[in-house]
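User: Can you help me understand a structure? I only have the sequence.
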Amino acid sequence: MKIMERLENWWTYHKGYVIVGMILLWILADLLRSGWNARMDAPDFQVAYVGSTPLGDDLIGMLETAFETIAPDRNGDGKSLVRIQSYLLEASQDLPDAALAQLAADIRLTADIESRESMFFMSEDLERLQASYGILETADGTCPGANGTAGADQVRRLSVSSTLDRIALMEEAGFAARDVLESSAPELFDSLSIGRRCFYGMVSDEDLAAADEFWDNLTGA
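Assistant: Let's start by predicting it. Here is the structure, written out as tokens:
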């Protein structure tokens, strides 16, 4: 009886702590689970599109699917996932709050660059992007800084190379990704290019190796 009384007394005085502790453990477990799911759902590669012409959801979906056919599984979750993030830096002046939209795009792009989210950049004017941000690799893989020139082997114009042809046929649509680009965004077809972000000394060797593999598959190197 004394043991039971002691247990009852202990529970009377400590049950509040036990309940709070269980709640905290549940919250911690939920946070860990959410973090794990976020990691598993995170893309293996993010490609930033920086331009003045919207790509459109259909074209973005097609390009993402095409890129995923040649992207390695960088985070080890058993699938290859590529996300295209758009930053429209020249909002139409006919739109309401165009200046605010422009500022928001600038802030989002800067945050992307600072947090190293995107490993590749697409644009109809990569030279302008490079002049403004200096984020594309030089020929030897180093970072040139603002106004530097990206290496010719680190940039591919999608329309004049066989890049899109090498990726894959879009089986569900029955035509190549090149045709999707030409028909969905004809004004971009002759100018849209993709370049490698420079990460010199900023990311792990494993991430650089994965980026190399993706780029080699993309360009047929």
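Now, to help you interpret it: Helices lie at 2-41, 57-68, 98-115, 126-133, 163-167, 177-184, 186-189, 205-219. The chain is about 50% helix and 15% strand. Let me know which part you'd like to focus on.
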